[in-house]
Amino acid sequence: MASYTAPRREFAFVLRDVLNIDRLQELPGFEDAGYDTFEGVIDEAAKLIEEQLWPLRESGDQQGCDWNHGDVKMPQGFAEAYRMFWESGWAGLSNPAEYNGQGLPFTLAQVVNEVMYAANVGFSLTTMLTNGCFEAILASADDAVKDMFLPKLGNGEWTGAMCLTEPQAGTDLASIRTKATPNGDGTYNIEGGKIFITSGEHDMTENIVHFVLARLPDAPPGVRGLSTFVVPKFLVNADGTLGARNQYKCVSIEHKMGIHGSCTCAMQFDGATGYLSGAPHTGIRNMFVMMNLERIMVGLQGLGQCELALQSALAYARERKQGKAFNGGATIINHPDVRRTILTMKAITEGARVMAYETTLHVDAAHHATDPATREAANDWVELNTPLVKAFCTDSAVDLGSMAIQVYGGHGFIRDNGVEQIVRDSKILCLYEGTNGVQSMDLVRRKLGLNGGRLPKRFFAAVRAEAADPALDFIARPLATAVDELEKTTTWLQQSMQDNPNDAAFGCVAFLRAFSLTYLGWAWLRMARAASKLDDGAFKSAKLVTARFFAAQMLPEVASLCARVRQPTTEYMEWDADAA
Ligand SMILES: Cc1cc2nc3c(=O)[nH]c(=O)nc-3n(C[C@H](O)[C@H](O)[C@H](O)COP(=O)(O)OP(=O)(O)OC[C@H]3O[C@@H](n4cnc5c(N)ncnc54)[C@H](O)[C@@H]3O)c2cc1C
Question: Does the beta carbon of 162 lie inside 6 Å of ligand 1?
Fold first, then answer.
């Protein structure tokens, strides 16, 4: 069976010893936000998730969701679990207290989320989309719309759904056709069809709030002509009670490869009442407020699945006996190839965790720091890290899911053992909230050049400041080489974007991986430094061995990835794919 418990020891090490989370206390409103306070919150949330959500992972996968004439029934136990989840205050951890949230740091909410994303990623999607919907309305709507929806979205009593995708408009939101026409009373008439809408309909809450991208009659073409509308399932009366059922329907749900515990709905809006959120034609900006945070959260979904794969594979490898290894050991963890696989999983998961939480700490600083220079620097880091966290953590989830199956051998291929579900559940993470190809293009096309190219410069300087540590030469040296390669390739890409964008775009996925591995090298250097000060022998030695493994076995990949990026691609692009 797959196995998982929240990695409490890892959280303490990464957040307290490596990233010094106590620095959050310098931000206004977070004066009490030290790790000692966090530890209790994380432990309480983890117990609840382990006891209530983890047991629903497999049953939710097997049962899936059920559509019946527009109604959607979630798998058994989901509605009760969701009620327990929001009623006990876990749904709105980082939402502001004025809208019934807990007002805690984004970072803390994401630690709790990581546990939920590992234990039951299908279930977790509703809460993730609700957070996104909350953020988008908070950032764009007027006070009347905020007051109507945010108090109940803020604590999770109602859930949110994000309605962007249409059959002809996936990545290319410019081709969205859904229309919004003024009703003359300040509301809008929404007409059109949306597909792939997560939690568009379900039986877990009394109301569902859709955040919809649509076009006003006078809209210019393309993404500049999109506006955002809040479209609730039930209209809300002036006294806050629920009114008439709105004019839309869930016309079907998808049958998917994974995340069966999440319903993916085709929605038809037939004259539904909507409220404009933000100024006309600012829809894409309003959506990106939530998309940027959601991309980090999807990365954390990937991280959660990596941890699940790692724990499952390690537990199995410690118990499964097959043959005798060269060292005389009877369990498969003693076979060098199995050990190499487990160390790869460990190096990626634990390194990616540092990258992910360093990013969430920057989000907290970007939102709450009072000093403009601190906010500016934090914003730069968030911009740079978001595509890395989203794409690297989610690609790794699929890779590590596959590695876990390999460690289980044929037993990994059997449904009852629960590890093949990791691959099936994780693949979608590479696709939604902007495919990983699109994330890589975002890195190369936008982030490398943003603000005069200062984002990668910040990264190179920060890594170099720590990569000259003679005490940690085993990783400091290969890390310095990796940064040099990455910088050379960054310059090449910046130039190629001007001269021949096809060359730059062709290598963007390899470049994102090279960037992420270098980031993980920086993370492992800092983990090795922090671990060397620990007394906990087994934990310390595992960290130091994994740091050495990463430095020797994984960091050298950066140079070959970079060499692949710096290649002309004219021949490939001139190949007539239609004629083949
Ligand atoms: C289970 C599930 C849940 C979802 N939930 C939601 C939801 O809640 N709300 C919502 O609105 N949508 C949702 N989606 C939709 C999802 O966000 C889209 O599927 C995704 O944006 C990709 O769009 P597409 O499927 O049309 O692929 P396409 O856009 O057709 O892309 C196909 C391929 O072409 C590549 N490509 C396309 N354009 C470019 C480009 N400009 N540069 C480089 N490469 C490019 C892509 O990377 C991809 O590899 C969900 C989808 C699924 C399957």
Answer: yes
Is 163's C-beta closer than 6 angstroms to any atom of ligand 1?
Answer: yes
Strands 208-215 and 159-163, by their bridges, are: parallel
Q: Minimal CA–CA distance to 141: which of 188, 211, 206?
A: 211
Which tokens hold the place of 496?
């190629």
pLDDT digits (tens, 9 = 90+) for 209-227: 999 999 999 999 999 999 9
Average of per-residue pLDDT across 413-437 = 97
> Do residue 91 and residue 175 come from a single domain?
no
Task: Give 221 Cα–ligand 1 centroid separation in angstroms.
Answer: 21
Domain extent, residue 195, equals 160-281
Distance 163 CA to ligand 1 centre (A): 13
Can you give the pLDDT at residue 536? 84
- Give domain status of residue 333, yes or no: no
**Nearest atom (ligand 1) to Cα of 262:** 1
The length of the chain in residues reads: 580
Q: Which residues are within 8 A (CB) of 518 and not within 5 positions of it... i.e. 6 or more apart? A: 463, 479, 482, 483, 486, 555, 558
pLDDT at 32: 86
Q: Are residues 444 and 568 in the same domain?
A: yes
What's the pLDDT tens digit per position in 282-294? 999 999 888 999 9
Cα 170 to averaged position of ligand 1 atoms, centre (Å): 5
The complex's ipTM works out to 0.99
Is 319 in the active site?
Answer: no
